[in-house]
Give the backbone structure.
Amino acid sequence: MIKNNFISGAIILCLLGGLIFFAQKTYDNAIIYEKAYTKTVDKDDNLASNIISSLFPSSESDNKSEKSAKLKKLQEIAQQSMFEFVGFLALSLIGYFLFTKFAFVIYLHLSSLIALVYGVITPIFFIFVHKNFGLADITLEFDSNSIITSIEKLFNQDNYFVGGIILFFSIIFPLIKTLLSLSLNILKEKNFLHIHKISSTLSSLSRWSMSDVFVLSIFLVYLSPKKGGNIETELEMGFYIFLSYVVLSIIISAINSIKKEEAKEE
């Protein structure tokens, strides 16, 4: 176990830097894939051109196959970046055996904040509505949003209630809860048990800041399309980054509960 605070701090900074690097890489590649997909859908979203392509399929079919292959490649790159982020995060958890408990807990809090931030800004899933008109299958509606853009969309539609719920339970509440827990662990005051009562109150509500409310709220926005047709969804990288935050949050809550019990015994 590394007990030297300077060495532990340096390693933790390197690990956090690595997390930010892979998170940013995932975000960048997810945005590239999103823009390429949106551009392709916009070009194909024309009934006349799709009918013509169905009547003269040779060159148009090759072009579509080429676009599909390009999108598939971009999707694989984004997924690879996400796997690198999750893999690096998972491997970094071996720090439990290398650092002091205090250093490891601080690392958990900081890494969870990184996962929260990138989970909020990275696209979470695509949803598109398409309908077969006989000669061609036309995309009627397509959208791709992150949590933050979903909230913006709801506010722009004057749906302040649902937007406020997503904003509070998916961003504000997790942020406050994590920062409060971090401050409690850094302070390490003698009256930890007394201060921990505040954290306990928040912990009792922690289930509402998890992915269930987040996912249900997003479905309220997207699974009520304005146009009729077949609905398809595709989970994107932001979902898995946000899920990483949820897992880290559960680990932190478990550690805080153990500390609370230890404080009671003292």
The first strand starts at residue 125 and ends at 132.
